[in-house]
Amino acid sequence: MIKTKKSYGIIEKGITVIGSTAIDKIVQRNSSCSKIGGVTTYSGITYRRHGINTWVVTNIANCDREIIRRLRQESIVVYNGQTQFTTFFKNMIDDEGKRSQKIYQKAASINREQVNENLKEVDFVHLGPLYPTDIDARAIELIDSLKHFVILDVQGLVRAVRSNIVYAAVSEHLPAALRVSHIVKANRQEYESLIAFFRTDLLGLMRQFHINEFVVTAGHKGGFVQTIGAGKTSYPAAEITSNEDTTGAGDVFLAAYVIGRFSKKRSIADACKYAAKLAARQIEGKYIKPNDLCLEDHK
What we know:
Blueprint: E1 15-18, E2 22-28, E3 31-37, H1 39-49, E4 54-59, H2 65-73, E5 77-81, E6 88-93, E7 99-105, H3 112-117, E8 124-127, H4 137-146, E9 149-153, E10 159-162, E11 165-168, H5 174-180, E12 183-187, H6 188-198, H7 202-209, E13 213-217, E14 223-227, E15 232-235, H8 249-262, H9 268-283, H10 290-293, E16 294-295
Parallel strand pairs: 1-4, 1-8, 2-6, 4-5, 8-9, 9-12, 12-13
Antiparallel strand pairs: 2-3, 3-16, 6-7, 10-11, 13-14, 14-15
């Protein structure tokens, strides 16, 4: 099914963020802490702190209901399904900032019924899968039929897990997600994996899947946004005065970019500048602060 193009408007009713809400154990510089994570957390809080009505569709185990309470403290409406486990990542960050990941628990897939019940009140949808089966394929089909404006972070669809270790691999579920999406975001490594997998250039990929804007982030090197009509817009990274933790910075960037484009009605260049600034504040620990997310340590 080919999606119908939506005109560029503003977020009027609100946005639903769909995906796992994770427990992230961060191991860095001989210390560790556990925090609430996932696109639902970082992007969801960013949308809500900008005054946008925000819903989260996710699966969190009953034993981790403290996570739901924290999100609701941010005035996010949380629709939680049934799952035995909450998604649990261990993130190891070396002295050069290079990250490796292991996943020890996966929540149940978010199903069609959950999505169907929770998209009536919004006009935008933000897909944030953390692994290939995070959102069920039938739920993606439903989103396509409802014709919402869809934002996709590809991160969970360009990774696989073997013996708990997360490694780069393009999922068979990625094409269906690309087909429903109008705005797509990838980091540089993910972007290169996509181009190699589909054996095309970025414009070819965008035309194939009818993508309006493709956002590529490259950390301290900045990044760019590609459109079909307006070409490529590059942006520099914002200055960072202290590097606390890069976790969630990409999620904050994407939400801030969407806010700039579809709430504040800014140009691509201005939206990138605003998003880079907010992502830098996140890395410094000054936006969504560590105490907002910290949990008792998980083994």
